[in-house]
Write a structure and sequence with these properties.
Blueprint: H1 3-18, H2 34-40, E1 47-53, E2 56-57, E3 64-65, E4 67-74, E5 82-88, E6 93-97, E7 100-104, E8 109-112, E9 117-121, H3 135-140, E10 148-155, E11 161-172, E12 182-192, H4 204-207
Parallel strand pairs: 8-12
Antiparallel strand pairs: 1-6, 1-11, 2-3, 4-5, 4-10, 6-7, 9-10, 11-12
């Protein structure tokens, strides 16, 4: 870690301890936007953040998350894994870095997380998702599927995560004959349970994200 990155992480951590009672730091005491948060923390390096919001109970594991995705992985050895996103939450998240709070939807978050839950299913297995019309049971109806591994990736209340800002670009279709596609940019927050940068992949919900 370089000196500047270490200082930014330390500042966020100290402010989080000393000023957690501050209700917000945007205009009028409201939650900031992601852009305002970036400007407030000089967001060019790695940060330490926590999250708040409404918790959801996972149907498959019973765990509580602020945001999560349940993903079924399947496929024959040697052909590469396939996956199906069975469920993901879509509620608003509050990002906390020191005294600063920003509210954003899951669409502006990019998670790089290790699985928080994992369960292997065989055709005769019992458990959530294996009901006659269950999501996991339905995957076994596909030709050649002999095993399903269900994994959950989620953000948990009270846990510290590493984060950094990233700008993604995309193009809108041409506005008419002879016009070029319009380039747009979108500010997002990458979040990981390991120090950034790392080699943890984006979770499936965001790995295939498109505009």
């Amino acid at each position: 870690m370089d000196k500047n990155t270490g200082l930014k992480i330390a500042v966020c951590a100290v402010l989080a301890i000393a000023l957690t009672a501050v209700p917000g730091s945007g205009k009028g005491g409201k939650n900031m936007t992601l852009q305002e948060l970036r400007e407030a923390v000089d967001g060019s390096g790695s940060l330490v953040v926590t999250f708040e919001g409404d918790e959801s109970d996972s149907y498959f594991s019973g765990k509580k998350y602020l945001h999560y995705e349940s993903v079924a992985f399947f496929g024959e050895p040697g052909t590469g894994p396939s996956h199906s996103i069975l469920y993901h939450t879509d509620s608003e998240l509050v990002i906390i870095c020191g005294a600063h709070r920003a509210a954003e939807t899951y669409r502006r978050i990019r998670t790089r997380l290790r699985p928080s839950f994992e369960k292997e299913y065989l055709p005769g297995s019992d458990g959530p998702g294996m009901e006659p019309d269950g999501a996991v049971k339905g995957i076994f109806a596909m030709e050649g599927v002999k095993k399903v591994v269900l994994k959950e990736f989620g953000l948990v209340r009270g846990m510290e995560y590493f984060a950094r800002f990233k700008t993604e670009s995309y193009h809108l279709p041409p506005g008419g004959p002879g016009k070029k596609p319009a380039r747009r940019e979108n500010l997002v927050l990458e979040v990981s349970d390991s120090r950034i940068p790392n080699d943890t992949d984006l979770t499936p919900l965001y790995k295939g994200w498109s505009y």
